[in-house]
Amino acid sequence: MHYPLTLEGEALLLLADKAVYWPARKCLLIADAHFGKASAYRSLGQPVPQGTTTENLSKLDRLLAAFECEEVVFLGDFLHGPGSHASGTLNALRAWRERHPDVAMTLIRGNHDKRAGDPPADLRIEVVGEPLLMGPFALQHEPDPHASHHVLAGHVHPVYRLRGKGRQSLRLACFQIGARVSLLPAFGAFTGGYQVEQRDDRQIYVIGDQEVWSVR
Predict the structure, then answer these.
(1) Which of 106, 130, 109 lies closest to 118, judged by CA?
(2) What is the pTM of this model?
(3) Which of 35, 61, 146, 173 could serve as 138's disulfide partner, Cβ 3.0–4.6 Å?
(4) Pfam family example for this protein (predicted)?
């Protein structure tokens, strides 16, 4: 279900639900939820699946039930675009927020947030620019190096291709932990991904079958 990792002296849990839990801060880190992406595409006349927002919120509910959590920090791209302000999407988000009234929530504004606009005020999500400095980490949307802090970022939607015998391969969402910049996978369903590679200066942790494991 999760992979324990020590980074910059802090114990973190890499979660199979594509998030990071920081026990010392009782904090959940979520990158690239892209709530309302499907509704945004449907508003443009594109035939895409329904129910992605409900799926993402159910996953968040499970995480908040499983871990003692006082704060959720969204590392950018909370809403996908202007079409994400559809009443169905916003009403689902409001109902979810009412289920967790005591959890502080912060959004680090990402590129899609700039297009979509900030979440409605009644969701009570504090919106800030990047970086947000917490302990040894610079929490950001863009994976740009920081002068003094280890960067935890989103934006890239990293995936890794596992290769088997012959032409067999499997493309999986992953965490990429680097020397000074680390990437979280996209939390949201229906988000796509950018393929990353294993290198000497980074470690890849892939997600599959509700497990997280290190690529050797």
Answers:
(1) 109
(2) 0.90
(3) 146
(4) Metallophos
